[in-house]
Amino acid sequence: MFESLRARHWLSILIAVAVMVGLPLVTQDTYLLHVLILAMVFGIFASAWNFVTGFAGLKTFGHHAFFALGAYGSALIGINAGLSPWVTIWLGGFIAAVAGLFIGLPVLRIKSMPHVAIVTLGFAEIVRITLSNLTDITRGELGLWGIPAFEGFTLPGIGEVSFSPADKAAYYYLALVLLLLSMVVITTMMRSKTGLSIIAMRDADDAAESLGVNLTRLKLQVFVVSSFLVGVAGAFYAHYISILTPMAVAGVDLMIMIIAMVLVGGLGTLTGPLAGALILTILVELLRDLDTFRLLIYGALIIFSVMFLPRGLVTIGEFVPWRKRPADNEGK
Amino acid sequence: MTFYLLIEQIINGLIIGSTYALIGSGIALIYGTMRVLNLAHGEFYMLGGYFVFYFAVTLGIPSYLAIPIAVFLAFVLGVVIQRMTIHYLLGREGWMFSSIAVTLGLSIFLQNAALLMFGEQFQSIPYYVSGVVEIGQVRIPAQRILIFVVAMTTIAVMWYILKRTRLGWAIRATSQDRDAAAVVGIPAERIFMITFGLAAALGAIAAAMLAPIYAINPWSGLPLLLKGFVVVILGGLGSFPGAIAAGLLLGVIEAIGVQLTSSEWRDLISFGLMIAVIWWRPWGLFGSKPA
Predict the structure, then answer these.
(1) How far is residue B221's CA from residue A65's CA, in Å, rounded to a whole number?
(2) What's the complex ipTM?
(3) Each residue of A68-78: pLDDT tens digit?
(4) Which of B98, B103, B109, B118 to mutate to probe the A interface, most A CBs <10 Å?
(5) Among the CATH numbers 1.10.10, 2.50.20, 3.10.620, 1.10.3470, which is that of B3-280?
(6) Are A262 and A63 a contacting pair, CB within 8 Å?
(7) Strand pairing of B138-141 and A153-155?
(8) A244 DSSP β-pair partners
(9) Cβ separation B275–A106 shorter than 8 A
(10) Chain B: residue nearest A59 by CA?
(11) Whole-model pTM above 0.95?
Protein backbone atom coordinates (compact mmCIF):
# COMPACT_ATOMS: atom_id res chain seq x y z
CA MET A 1 0.00 0.00 0.00
CA PHE A 2 2.91 2.31 0.66
CA GLU A 3 4.81 1.62 -2.53
CA SER A 4 4.93 4.64 -4.78
CA LEU A 5 2.41 4.70 -7.57
CA ARG A 6 3.96 3.64 -10.84
CA ALA A 7 2.64 4.25 -14.30
CA ARG A 8 0.64 1.02 -14.35
CA HIS A 9 -1.12 1.95 -11.12
CA TRP A 10 -2.06 5.35 -12.45
CA LEU A 11 -3.19 3.71 -15.66
CA SER A 12 -5.51 1.26 -13.91
CA ILE A 13 -6.94 4.03 -11.72
CA LEU A 14 -7.44 6.18 -14.81
CA ILE A 15 -9.15 3.36 -16.70
CA ALA A 16 -11.45 2.56 -13.77
CA VAL A 17 -12.47 6.21 -13.39
CA ALA A 18 -12.88 6.64 -17.16
CA VAL A 19 -15.16 3.59 -17.34
CA MET A 20 -17.26 4.89 -14.46
CA VAL A 21 -17.45 8.40 -15.94
CA GLY A 22 -18.17 7.17 -19.44
CA LEU A 23 -20.80 4.60 -18.58
CA PRO A 24 -23.88 6.90 -18.54
CA LEU A 25 -22.82 8.21 -21.96
CA VAL A 26 -23.16 4.69 -23.35
CA THR A 27 -26.32 3.58 -21.59
CA GLN A 28 -29.05 5.56 -19.84
CA ASP A 29 -30.76 2.44 -18.53
CA THR A 30 -32.26 3.65 -15.23
CA TYR A 31 -32.18 0.22 -13.64
CA LEU A 32 -28.49 -0.31 -14.34
CA LEU A 33 -27.64 3.18 -13.11
CA HIS A 34 -29.75 2.63 -9.98
CA VAL A 35 -27.82 -0.55 -9.15
CA LEU A 36 -24.50 1.21 -9.69
CA ILE A 37 -25.57 4.19 -7.57
CA LEU A 38 -26.38 1.82 -4.71
CA ALA A 39 -23.08 0.01 -5.26
CA MET A 40 -21.25 3.34 -4.96
CA VAL A 41 -23.11 4.38 -1.78
CA PHE A 42 -22.33 1.01 -0.23
CA GLY A 43 -18.81 1.33 -1.61
CA ILE A 44 -18.30 4.51 0.43
CA PHE A 45 -19.78 2.83 3.50
CA ALA A 46 -17.69 -0.32 3.02
CA SER A 47 -14.47 1.65 2.45
CA ALA A 48 -15.08 3.79 5.52
CA TRP A 49 -15.83 0.73 7.66
CA ASN A 50 -12.75 -0.98 6.31
CA PHE A 51 -10.74 2.15 7.18
CA VAL A 52 -11.68 1.69 10.85
CA THR A 53 -11.77 -2.09 10.99
CA GLY A 54 -9.30 -3.29 8.39
CA PHE A 55 -6.65 -0.58 8.64
CA ALA A 56 -6.92 0.77 12.16
CA GLY A 57 -7.96 -2.59 13.64
CA LEU A 58 -10.91 -1.20 15.62
CA LYS A 59 -13.48 -3.91 15.05
CA THR A 60 -16.74 -2.01 15.14
CA PHE A 61 -20.07 -3.63 14.40
CA GLY A 62 -22.18 -0.51 14.76
CA HIS A 63 -21.27 1.71 11.84
CA HIS A 64 -24.82 1.57 10.49
CA ALA A 65 -25.65 3.99 13.32
CA PHE A 66 -23.67 6.67 11.48
CA PHE A 67 -25.35 5.87 8.18
CA ALA A 68 -28.74 6.27 9.87
CA LEU A 69 -27.71 9.46 11.68
CA GLY A 70 -26.45 10.99 8.46
CA ALA A 71 -29.58 9.93 6.57
CA TYR A 72 -32.13 11.01 9.18
CA GLY A 73 -30.11 14.07 10.16
CA SER A 74 -29.92 15.40 6.62
CA ALA A 75 -33.52 14.48 5.79
CA LEU A 76 -34.98 16.02 8.96
CA ILE A 77 -33.00 19.24 8.62
CA GLY A 78 -34.10 19.43 4.99
CA ILE A 79 -37.76 18.86 5.88
CA ASN A 80 -37.95 21.04 8.98
CA ALA A 81 -35.55 23.86 8.21
CA GLY A 82 -36.07 23.92 4.46
CA LEU A 83 -32.36 23.79 3.74
CA SER A 84 -31.11 22.43 0.44
CA PRO A 85 -29.73 18.86 0.34
CA TRP A 86 -26.52 20.36 -1.03
CA VAL A 87 -26.03 21.84 2.45
CA THR A 88 -27.68 19.21 4.59
CA ILE A 89 -25.68 16.20 3.38
CA TRP A 90 -22.59 17.81 4.93
CA LEU A 91 -24.54 18.54 8.10
CA GLY A 92 -25.58 14.86 8.09
CA GLY A 93 -21.94 13.89 7.89
CA PHE A 94 -21.15 16.35 10.68
CA ILE A 95 -23.86 14.85 12.93
CA ALA A 96 -22.46 11.38 12.29
CA ALA A 97 -18.94 12.60 13.07
CA VAL A 98 -20.07 14.12 16.40
CA ALA A 99 -21.78 10.84 17.27
CA GLY A 100 -18.59 9.05 16.27
CA LEU A 101 -16.68 11.24 18.70
CA PHE A 102 -19.20 10.56 21.46
CA ILE A 103 -19.09 6.79 21.10
CA GLY A 104 -15.43 6.78 20.16
CA LEU A 105 -14.24 8.32 23.40
CA PRO A 106 -15.27 5.54 25.78
CA VAL A 107 -14.69 2.72 23.32
CA LEU A 108 -11.25 3.65 22.14
CA ARG A 109 -9.69 3.69 25.57
CA ILE A 110 -10.38 -0.03 25.66
CA LYS A 111 -7.98 -2.33 23.90
CA SER A 112 -10.25 -5.37 24.14
CA MET A 113 -11.70 -6.14 20.72
CA PRO A 114 -14.92 -7.81 21.96
CA HIS A 115 -15.75 -4.77 24.08
CA VAL A 116 -15.43 -2.50 21.06
CA ALA A 117 -17.63 -4.84 19.01
CA ILE A 118 -20.33 -5.09 21.67
CA VAL A 119 -20.45 -1.42 22.61
CA THR A 120 -20.63 -0.17 19.02
CA LEU A 121 -23.39 -2.69 18.28
CA GLY A 122 -25.25 -1.53 21.38
CA PHE A 123 -24.87 2.10 20.33
CA ALA A 124 -26.36 1.33 16.92
CA GLU A 125 -29.31 -0.35 18.63
CA ILE A 126 -29.80 2.78 20.74
CA VAL A 127 -29.94 4.83 17.55
CA ARG A 128 -32.39 2.43 15.90
CA ILE A 129 -34.70 2.27 18.92
CA THR A 130 -34.65 6.03 19.32
CA LEU A 131 -35.46 6.58 15.65
CA SER A 132 -38.36 4.16 15.71
CA ASN A 133 -39.73 5.41 19.05
CA LEU A 134 -39.62 9.14 18.33
CA THR A 135 -42.60 8.80 16.00
CA ASP A 136 -43.52 12.50 16.30
CA ILE A 137 -40.31 13.45 14.55
CA THR A 138 -39.33 10.45 12.43
CA ARG A 139 -42.72 8.76 11.87
CA GLY A 140 -41.05 5.59 13.15
CA GLU A 141 -41.42 2.41 11.13
CA LEU A 142 -44.11 4.02 8.96
CA GLY A 143 -41.25 5.69 7.19
CA LEU A 144 -40.06 9.24 6.79
CA TRP A 145 -41.07 10.62 3.42
CA GLY A 146 -41.22 14.02 1.75
CA ILE A 147 -37.44 14.25 1.84
CA PRO A 148 -36.37 17.08 -0.50
CA ALA A 149 -34.49 16.12 -3.65
CA PHE A 150 -31.30 17.76 -4.85
CA GLU A 151 -31.97 20.97 -6.77
CA GLY A 152 -30.91 20.97 -10.39
CA PHE A 153 -28.49 23.51 -11.80
CA THR A 154 -27.10 24.53 -15.16
CA LEU A 155 -23.62 23.50 -16.15
CA PRO A 156 -22.00 25.68 -18.80
CA GLY A 157 -21.45 23.63 -21.92
CA ILE A 158 -23.59 20.67 -20.79
CA GLY A 159 -26.86 22.35 -20.01
CA GLU A 160 -29.54 21.61 -17.44
CA VAL A 161 -28.68 19.03 -14.75
CA SER A 162 -31.77 17.78 -12.99
CA PHE A 163 -32.22 15.24 -10.22
CA SER A 164 -35.40 13.29 -10.86
CA PRO A 165 -36.34 9.63 -10.43
CA ALA A 166 -36.50 9.29 -14.21
CA ASP A 167 -33.07 10.72 -14.84
CA LYS A 168 -30.52 8.82 -12.80
CA ALA A 169 -27.44 10.18 -14.55
CA ALA A 170 -27.18 13.24 -12.29
CA TYR A 171 -27.42 11.08 -9.15
CA TYR A 172 -24.93 8.71 -10.68
CA TYR A 173 -22.32 11.44 -11.16
CA LEU A 174 -22.94 12.89 -7.71
CA ALA A 175 -22.48 9.46 -6.14
CA LEU A 176 -19.33 8.98 -8.19
CA VAL A 177 -17.94 12.32 -7.02
CA LEU A 178 -18.68 11.44 -3.38
CA LEU A 179 -17.10 8.02 -3.83
CA LEU A 180 -13.96 9.47 -5.42
CA LEU A 181 -13.68 12.12 -2.69
CA SER A 182 -14.01 9.44 -0.01
CA MET A 183 -11.38 7.30 -1.67
CA VAL A 184 -9.04 10.29 -1.99
CA VAL A 185 -9.50 11.07 1.72
CA ILE A 186 -8.88 7.46 2.81
CA THR A 187 -6.04 6.86 0.38
CA THR A 188 -4.15 10.05 1.18
CA MET A 189 -4.52 9.40 4.91
CA MET A 190 -3.34 5.82 4.52
CA ARG A 191 -0.40 6.68 2.27
CA SER A 192 0.83 9.46 4.56
CA LYS A 193 2.77 9.26 7.80
CA THR A 194 -0.58 8.97 9.55
CA GLY A 195 -1.23 5.80 7.56
CA LEU A 196 2.03 4.30 8.75
CA SER A 197 1.05 5.10 12.34
CA ILE A 198 -2.40 3.57 11.75
CA ILE A 199 -0.92 0.29 10.49
CA ALA A 200 1.64 0.31 13.30
CA MET A 201 -1.16 0.81 15.82
CA ARG A 202 -3.11 -2.10 14.35
CA ASP A 203 -0.19 -4.52 14.26
CA ALA A 204 1.57 -3.63 17.50
CA ASP A 205 -0.12 -0.93 19.55
CA ASP A 206 2.34 -1.03 22.45
CA ALA A 207 5.31 -0.68 20.15
CA ALA A 208 3.60 2.14 18.24
CA GLU A 209 2.81 3.96 21.47
CA SER A 210 6.39 3.64 22.67
CA LEU A 211 7.54 5.26 19.42
CA GLY A 212 5.38 8.29 20.09
CA VAL A 213 2.11 7.45 18.35
CA ASN A 214 -0.74 8.99 20.34
CA LEU A 215 -3.09 5.99 20.15
CA THR A 216 -6.22 7.63 21.52
CA ARG A 217 -5.94 10.66 19.27
CA LEU A 218 -5.18 8.55 16.21
CA LYS A 219 -8.07 6.18 16.89
CA LEU A 220 -10.44 9.09 17.38
CA GLN A 221 -9.21 10.71 14.19
CA VAL A 222 -9.84 7.54 12.18
CA PHE A 223 -13.20 6.97 13.86
CA VAL A 224 -14.42 10.51 13.25
CA VAL A 225 -13.28 10.64 9.61
CA SER A 226 -14.89 7.27 8.98
CA SER A 227 -18.19 8.18 10.63
CA PHE A 228 -18.26 11.46 8.69
CA LEU A 229 -17.87 9.61 5.39
CA VAL A 230 -20.53 7.06 6.33
CA GLY A 231 -22.81 9.90 7.43
CA VAL A 232 -22.45 11.67 4.08
CA ALA A 233 -23.14 8.39 2.26
CA GLY A 234 -26.26 7.95 4.39
CA ALA A 235 -27.37 11.51 3.71
CA PHE A 236 -26.98 11.07 -0.04
CA TYR A 237 -28.91 7.80 0.21
CA ALA A 238 -31.74 9.59 2.05
CA HIS A 239 -32.18 12.23 -0.65
CA TYR A 240 -31.79 9.66 -3.41
CA ILE A 241 -34.20 6.99 -2.10
CA SER A 242 -36.42 9.68 -0.48
CA ILE A 243 -37.99 7.33 2.07
CA LEU A 244 -36.34 6.19 5.29
CA THR A 245 -37.31 3.59 7.87
CA PRO A 246 -35.30 2.80 11.01
CA MET A 247 -35.11 -0.88 10.02
CA ALA A 248 -33.72 -0.08 6.56
CA VAL A 249 -30.97 2.35 7.55
CA ALA A 250 -30.32 1.50 11.21
CA GLY A 251 -31.06 -2.24 11.23
CA VAL A 252 -28.34 -4.82 11.77
CA ASP A 253 -29.04 -6.21 8.29
CA LEU A 254 -27.39 -3.20 6.66
CA MET A 255 -24.23 -3.64 8.74
CA ILE A 256 -24.18 -7.34 7.93
CA MET A 257 -24.36 -6.56 4.23
CA ILE A 258 -21.45 -4.11 4.50
CA ILE A 259 -19.39 -6.59 6.53
CA ALA A 260 -20.08 -9.27 3.93
CA MET A 261 -18.94 -6.87 1.18
CA VAL A 262 -15.68 -6.03 2.92
CA LEU A 263 -14.89 -9.61 3.91
CA VAL A 264 -15.63 -10.93 0.44
CA GLY A 265 -13.69 -8.13 -1.23
CA GLY A 266 -10.76 -8.07 1.14
CA LEU A 267 -10.46 -6.65 4.66
CA GLY A 268 -7.58 -4.22 5.05
CA THR A 269 -7.12 -3.53 1.35
CA LEU A 270 -7.94 -0.33 -0.52
CA THR A 271 -9.76 -1.87 -3.46
CA GLY A 272 -11.37 -4.83 -1.66
CA PRO A 273 -14.37 -2.97 -0.18
CA LEU A 274 -15.15 -1.41 -3.57
CA ALA A 275 -14.94 -4.75 -5.34
CA GLY A 276 -17.05 -6.37 -2.62
CA ALA A 277 -19.68 -3.61 -2.78
CA LEU A 278 -19.94 -3.92 -6.56
CA ILE A 279 -20.09 -7.72 -6.59
CA LEU A 280 -22.59 -8.08 -3.77
CA THR A 281 -24.88 -5.29 -4.93
CA ILE A 282 -25.07 -6.85 -8.40
CA LEU A 283 -25.46 -10.31 -6.88
CA VAL A 284 -28.42 -9.10 -4.84
CA GLU A 285 -30.08 -7.74 -7.97
CA LEU A 286 -29.46 -10.97 -9.88
CA LEU A 287 -30.99 -12.89 -7.00
CA ARG A 288 -33.98 -10.58 -6.67
CA ASP A 289 -36.34 -13.50 -7.37
CA LEU A 290 -34.69 -15.50 -4.63
CA ASP A 291 -35.12 -12.77 -2.04
CA THR A 292 -35.73 -15.24 0.78
CA PHE A 293 -32.29 -16.69 0.17
CA ARG A 294 -30.53 -13.33 0.10
CA LEU A 295 -29.44 -13.24 3.73
CA LEU A 296 -28.78 -16.97 3.76
CA ILE A 297 -26.30 -16.39 0.95
CA TYR A 298 -24.75 -13.42 2.78
CA GLY A 299 -24.25 -15.61 5.83
CA ALA A 300 -22.72 -18.40 3.77
CA LEU A 301 -20.48 -15.90 1.94
CA ILE A 302 -19.18 -14.48 5.21
CA ILE A 303 -18.45 -17.94 6.58
CA PHE A 304 -16.85 -19.03 3.32
CA SER A 305 -14.61 -16.01 2.89
CA VAL A 306 -13.48 -16.04 6.53
CA MET A 307 -12.67 -19.74 6.39
CA PHE A 308 -11.15 -20.08 2.95
CA LEU A 309 -10.29 -16.62 1.65
CA PRO A 310 -9.29 -14.67 4.75
CA ARG A 311 -7.87 -11.74 2.78
CA GLY A 312 -10.63 -11.45 0.25
CA LEU A 313 -11.15 -11.69 -3.46
CA VAL A 314 -8.73 -8.93 -4.40
CA THR A 315 -5.84 -10.96 -3.04
CA ILE A 316 -6.79 -13.98 -5.10
CA GLY A 317 -4.12 -13.04 -7.63
CA GLU A 318 -1.49 -14.16 -5.13
CA PHE A 319 -2.70 -17.70 -5.56
CA VAL A 320 -1.95 -17.62 -9.27
CA PRO A 321 1.41 -19.37 -9.39
CA TRP A 322 2.84 -17.89 -12.59
CA ARG A 323 2.34 -14.32 -11.47
CA LYS A 324 5.20 -13.10 -9.30
CA ARG A 325 4.04 -10.35 -7.01
CA PRO A 326 6.25 -8.10 -4.96
CA ALA A 327 5.65 -9.02 -1.34
CA ASP A 328 3.78 -5.88 -0.36
CA ASN A 329 2.17 -5.59 3.00
CA GLU A 330 -1.32 -4.87 1.84
CA GLY A 331 -3.90 -6.55 4.00
CA LYS A 332 -1.50 -8.19 6.40
CA MET B 1 -45.25 3.34 42.14
CA THR B 2 -46.71 1.66 45.17
CA PHE B 3 -44.62 -0.50 47.43
CA TYR B 4 -46.24 -3.76 46.29
CA LEU B 5 -45.89 -2.83 42.66
CA LEU B 6 -42.21 -2.17 43.29
CA ILE B 7 -41.78 -5.57 44.96
CA GLU B 8 -43.62 -7.24 42.10
CA GLN B 9 -41.42 -5.52 39.53
CA ILE B 10 -38.27 -6.51 41.37
CA ILE B 11 -39.41 -10.14 41.49
CA ASN B 12 -40.34 -10.07 37.81
CA GLY B 13 -36.99 -8.49 37.07
CA LEU B 14 -35.17 -11.25 38.94
CA ILE B 15 -37.12 -13.86 37.00
CA ILE B 16 -36.34 -12.44 33.56
CA GLY B 17 -32.85 -11.60 34.81
CA SER B 18 -32.23 -15.25 35.62
CA THR B 19 -32.65 -16.09 31.93
CA TYR B 20 -30.39 -13.17 30.98
CA ALA B 21 -27.88 -14.75 33.33
CA LEU B 22 -28.21 -18.07 31.46
CA ILE B 23 -27.57 -16.41 28.10
CA GLY B 24 -24.79 -14.21 29.47
CA SER B 25 -23.04 -17.08 31.22
CA GLY B 26 -23.01 -19.02 27.93
CA ILE B 27 -21.32 -16.10 26.19
CA ALA B 28 -18.95 -15.67 29.15
CA LEU B 29 -18.09 -19.38 29.15
CA ILE B 30 -17.14 -19.38 25.47
CA TYR B 31 -15.23 -16.13 25.75
CA GLY B 32 -13.54 -17.13 28.97
CA THR B 33 -12.35 -20.45 27.60
CA MET B 34 -11.40 -19.73 24.01
CA ARG B 35 -11.47 -15.89 23.77
CA VAL B 36 -14.12 -16.05 21.06
CA LEU B 37 -17.00 -13.59 21.07
CA ASN B 38 -19.89 -15.69 19.85
CA LEU B 39 -22.31 -13.59 17.81
CA ALA B 40 -24.26 -16.76 16.97
CA HIS B 41 -25.20 -17.34 20.59
CA GLY B 42 -28.66 -15.90 20.01
CA GLU B 43 -29.22 -18.58 17.38
CA PHE B 44 -28.62 -21.33 19.94
CA TYR B 45 -31.40 -19.71 21.92
CA MET B 46 -33.65 -19.44 18.85
CA LEU B 47 -32.99 -22.99 17.63
CA GLY B 48 -33.34 -24.31 21.18
CA GLY B 49 -36.80 -22.77 21.22
CA TYR B 50 -37.71 -24.47 17.95
CA PHE B 51 -36.37 -27.82 19.18
CA VAL B 52 -38.54 -27.60 22.28
CA PHE B 53 -41.48 -26.56 20.14
CA TYR B 54 -40.92 -29.50 17.80
CA PHE B 55 -40.72 -32.14 20.51
CA ALA B 56 -43.24 -30.70 22.95
CA VAL B 57 -45.91 -29.36 20.58
CA THR B 58 -45.48 -30.97 17.15
CA LEU B 59 -44.66 -34.45 18.47
CA GLY B 60 -46.55 -33.99 21.72
CA ILE B 61 -43.85 -35.42 23.98
CA PRO B 62 -44.32 -34.36 27.63
CA SER B 63 -42.30 -31.24 28.29
CA TYR B 64 -40.16 -32.78 31.07
CA LEU B 65 -38.81 -35.15 28.38
CA ALA B 66 -38.96 -32.77 25.43
CA ILE B 67 -36.80 -30.11 27.07
CA PRO B 68 -33.87 -32.41 27.93
CA ILE B 69 -33.93 -33.84 24.38
CA ALA B 70 -33.95 -30.34 22.89
CA VAL B 71 -31.15 -29.22 25.19
CA PHE B 72 -29.07 -32.25 24.26
CA LEU B 73 -29.67 -31.54 20.58
CA ALA B 74 -28.49 -27.96 21.11
CA PHE B 75 -25.37 -29.32 22.83
CA VAL B 76 -24.61 -31.53 19.82
CA LEU B 77 -25.26 -28.63 17.45
CA GLY B 78 -22.86 -26.43 19.43
CA VAL B 79 -20.14 -29.09 19.33
CA VAL B 80 -20.57 -29.66 15.59
CA ILE B 81 -20.56 -25.96 14.78
CA GLN B 82 -17.44 -25.38 16.85
CA ARG B 83 -15.65 -28.29 15.18
CA MET B 84 -16.59 -27.16 11.68
CA THR B 85 -15.73 -23.46 12.00
CA ILE B 86 -14.04 -22.01 15.09
CA HIS B 87 -11.78 -25.05 15.39
CA TYR B 88 -9.98 -24.16 12.17
CA LEU B 89 -9.70 -20.46 12.96
CA LEU B 90 -8.22 -20.59 16.47
CA GLY B 91 -4.56 -19.69 16.38
CA ARG B 92 -4.63 -18.60 12.75
CA GLU B 93 -3.40 -15.11 11.92
CA GLY B 94 -6.03 -12.56 12.91
CA TRP B 95 -8.20 -15.26 14.52
CA MET B 96 -9.66 -12.87 17.09
CA PHE B 97 -11.51 -11.00 14.39
CA SER B 98 -12.09 -13.89 12.02
CA SER B 99 -13.73 -15.92 14.78
CA ILE B 100 -16.13 -13.04 15.50
CA ALA B 101 -16.81 -12.63 11.79
CA VAL B 102 -17.49 -16.32 11.28
CA THR B 103 -19.98 -16.39 14.14
CA LEU B 104 -21.68 -13.38 12.56
CA GLY B 105 -21.96 -15.34 9.31
CA LEU B 106 -23.25 -18.36 11.23
CA SER B 107 -25.81 -16.23 12.99
CA ILE B 108 -27.30 -14.92 9.74
CA PHE B 109 -27.08 -18.31 8.10
CA LEU B 110 -28.85 -20.14 10.94
CA GLN B 111 -31.45 -17.38 11.25
CA ASN B 112 -32.39 -17.62 7.60
CA ALA B 113 -32.16 -21.40 7.51
CA ALA B 114 -34.69 -21.37 10.36
CA LEU B 115 -36.82 -18.94 8.39
CA LEU B 116 -36.86 -21.30 5.40
CA MET B 117 -37.49 -24.39 7.52
CA PHE B 118 -39.98 -23.16 10.07
CA GLY B 119 -41.55 -20.16 8.34
CA GLU B 120 -41.96 -16.68 9.70
CA GLN B 121 -45.04 -17.22 11.84
CA PHE B 122 -44.64 -16.86 15.58
CA GLN B 123 -44.89 -20.11 17.51
CA SER B 124 -45.57 -20.49 21.17
CA ILE B 125 -45.55 -23.26 23.69
CA PRO B 126 -48.29 -23.68 26.31
CA TYR B 127 -47.42 -22.98 29.93
CA TYR B 128 -45.71 -25.90 31.65
CA VAL B 129 -47.50 -25.19 34.92
CA SER B 130 -50.63 -23.22 35.63
CA GLY B 131 -51.78 -21.29 38.65
CA VAL B 132 -50.71 -18.20 40.49
CA VAL B 133 -48.64 -17.97 43.62
CA GLU B 134 -49.76 -15.31 46.08
CA ILE B 135 -47.49 -13.91 48.74
CA GLY B 136 -49.29 -11.15 50.59
CA GLN B 137 -50.48 -8.78 47.88
CA VAL B 138 -47.88 -9.90 45.36
CA ARG B 139 -49.21 -12.31 42.72
CA ILE B 140 -46.86 -14.19 40.46
CA PRO B 141 -47.80 -16.87 37.89
CA ALA B 142 -46.32 -20.26 38.78
CA GLN B 143 -44.83 -20.43 35.27
CA ARG B 144 -42.60 -17.48 36.09
CA ILE B 145 -41.50 -19.02 39.36
CA LEU B 146 -40.60 -22.16 37.41
CA ILE B 147 -38.42 -20.07 35.07
CA PHE B 148 -36.48 -18.72 38.01
CA VAL B 149 -36.11 -22.11 39.70
CA VAL B 150 -34.94 -23.87 36.54
CA ALA B 151 -32.55 -21.07 35.60
CA MET B 152 -30.98 -20.91 39.04
CA THR B 153 -30.75 -24.71 39.27
CA THR B 154 -29.04 -24.84 35.88
CA ILE B 155 -26.59 -22.17 36.99
CA ALA B 156 -25.93 -24.07 40.23
CA VAL B 157 -25.29 -27.28 38.26
CA MET B 158 -22.99 -25.42 35.88
CA TRP B 159 -21.19 -23.94 38.85
CA TYR B 160 -20.77 -27.40 40.35
CA ILE B 161 -19.44 -28.76 37.05
CA LEU B 162 -16.93 -25.93 36.77
CA LYS B 163 -15.75 -26.10 40.37
CA ARG B 164 -15.98 -29.75 41.36
CA THR B 165 -15.64 -32.04 38.36
CA ARG B 166 -12.63 -33.05 36.32
CA LEU B 167 -14.31 -31.57 33.23
CA GLY B 168 -14.72 -28.26 35.04
CA TRP B 169 -11.11 -28.26 36.17
CA ALA B 170 -10.04 -28.96 32.62
CA ILE B 171 -12.21 -26.11 31.30
CA ARG B 172 -10.87 -23.69 33.87
CA ALA B 173 -7.29 -24.79 33.35
CA THR B 174 -7.65 -24.35 29.59
CA SER B 175 -9.12 -20.90 30.05
CA GLN B 176 -6.28 -19.84 32.32
CA ASP B 177 -3.46 -21.10 30.17
CA ARG B 178 -4.11 -23.18 27.12
CA ASP B 179 -0.53 -24.30 26.59
CA ALA B 180 0.12 -25.17 30.22
CA ALA B 181 -3.10 -27.17 30.25
CA ALA B 182 -2.00 -29.03 27.14
CA VAL B 183 1.33 -29.83 28.82
CA VAL B 184 -0.41 -31.65 31.66
CA GLY B 185 -2.44 -33.66 29.17
CA ILE B 186 -5.71 -31.73 28.89
CA PRO B 187 -7.03 -32.07 25.34
CA ALA B 188 -7.69 -28.36 24.76
CA GLU B 189 -9.45 -28.84 21.45
CA ARG B 190 -11.94 -31.31 22.90
CA ILE B 191 -12.50 -28.95 25.84
CA PHE B 192 -13.29 -26.15 23.41
CA MET B 193 -15.88 -28.29 21.63
CA ILE B 194 -17.51 -29.32 24.90
CA THR B 195 -17.52 -25.72 26.15
CA PHE B 196 -19.26 -24.56 22.98
CA GLY B 197 -21.80 -27.34 23.38
CA LEU B 198 -22.41 -26.44 27.04
CA ALA B 199 -22.95 -22.79 26.14
CA ALA B 200 -25.41 -23.80 23.42
CA ALA B 201 -27.22 -25.99 25.94
CA LEU B 202 -27.47 -23.04 28.36
CA GLY B 203 -29.03 -21.01 25.55
CA ALA B 204 -31.51 -23.78 24.81
CA ILE B 205 -32.53 -24.02 28.47
CA ALA B 206 -33.16 -20.28 28.52
CA ALA B 207 -35.24 -20.69 25.35
CA ALA B 208 -37.21 -23.59 26.80
CA MET B 209 -38.10 -21.53 29.85
CA LEU B 210 -38.92 -18.31 28.01
CA ALA B 211 -40.81 -19.91 25.07
CA PRO B 212 -44.17 -19.98 26.87
CA ILE B 213 -44.05 -16.22 27.56
CA TYR B 214 -42.07 -14.98 24.53
CA ALA B 215 -42.95 -16.22 21.05
CA ILE B 216 -40.47 -18.28 19.03
CA ASN B 217 -39.55 -16.96 15.60
CA PRO B 218 -36.40 -16.92 13.46
CA TRP B 219 -35.42 -13.49 14.77
CA SER B 220 -36.03 -14.16 18.44
CA GLY B 221 -32.33 -14.78 19.08
CA LEU B 222 -31.02 -11.29 18.36
CA PRO B 223 -32.70 -9.41 21.24
CA LEU B 224 -31.53 -12.06 23.69
CA LEU B 225 -28.02 -12.02 22.22
CA LEU B 226 -27.85 -8.26 22.77
CA LYS B 227 -29.09 -8.71 26.34
CA GLY B 228 -26.43 -11.34 26.83
CA PHE B 229 -23.80 -8.89 25.60
CA VAL B 230 -24.96 -6.23 28.02
CA VAL B 231 -24.74 -8.84 30.77
CA VAL B 232 -21.16 -9.81 29.96
CA ILE B 233 -20.06 -6.17 29.74
CA LEU B 234 -21.69 -5.40 33.10
CA GLY B 235 -20.31 -8.55 34.68
CA GLY B 236 -16.85 -8.37 33.16
CA LEU B 237 -16.26 -10.27 29.94
CA GLY B 238 -15.46 -13.92 30.49
CA SER B 239 -16.50 -14.00 34.16
CA PHE B 240 -19.08 -16.68 34.96
CA PRO B 241 -20.11 -15.36 38.39
CA GLY B 242 -20.05 -11.81 37.00
CA ALA B 243 -22.50 -12.83 34.29
CA ILE B 244 -24.92 -14.32 36.81
CA ALA B 245 -24.90 -11.29 39.08
CA ALA B 246 -25.13 -8.91 36.12
CA GLY B 247 -28.01 -10.89 34.57
CA LEU B 248 -30.12 -10.61 37.70
CA LEU B 249 -29.19 -6.94 38.14
CA LEU B 250 -30.05 -6.12 34.54
CA GLY B 251 -33.43 -7.83 34.88
CA VAL B 252 -34.30 -5.74 37.93
CA ILE B 253 -33.05 -2.45 36.45
CA GLU B 254 -35.03 -3.07 33.27
CA ALA B 255 -38.20 -3.96 35.14
CA ILE B 256 -38.04 -0.81 37.25
CA GLY B 257 -36.96 1.32 34.28
CA VAL B 258 -39.89 0.10 32.20
CA GLN B 259 -42.25 0.86 35.06
CA LEU B 260 -40.94 4.42 35.16
CA THR B 261 -40.97 4.99 31.37
CA SER B 262 -42.63 2.55 28.98
CA SER B 263 -41.85 -0.83 27.50
CA GLU B 264 -40.59 0.44 24.16
CA TRP B 265 -37.63 2.05 25.94
CA ARG B 266 -36.66 -1.22 27.66
CA ASP B 267 -33.72 -1.97 25.37
CA LEU B 268 -32.54 1.61 25.43
CA ILE B 269 -32.26 1.39 29.21
CA SER B 270 -30.03 -1.66 29.05
CA PHE B 271 -27.78 -0.35 26.26
CA GLY B 272 -27.53 3.04 27.96
CA LEU B 273 -26.52 1.27 31.16
CA MET B 274 -23.90 -0.65 29.22
CA ILE B 275 -22.36 2.49 27.74
CA ALA B 276 -22.38 4.17 31.13
CA VAL B 277 -20.54 1.19 32.59
CA ILE B 278 -18.02 1.29 29.75
CA TRP B 279 -17.29 4.93 30.62
CA TRP B 280 -17.09 4.31 34.32
CA ARG B 281 -15.77 0.77 34.85
CA PRO B 282 -14.75 -0.78 31.52
CA TRP B 283 -13.65 -3.97 33.26
CA GLY B 284 -17.19 -4.60 34.55
CA LEU B 285 -19.15 -3.92 37.70
CA PHE B 286 -17.91 -6.95 39.60
CA GLY B 287 -14.43 -7.42 38.24
CA SER B 288 -11.34 -5.74 39.57
CA LYS B 289 -9.34 -3.22 37.61
CA PRO B 290 -6.70 -5.00 35.57
CA ALA B 291 -3.20 -4.02 36.58
Answers:
(1) 21
(2) 0.85
(3) 999 999 998 88
(4) B109
(5) 1.10.3470
(6) no
(7) unpaired
(8) A144
(9) yes
(10) B97
(11) no
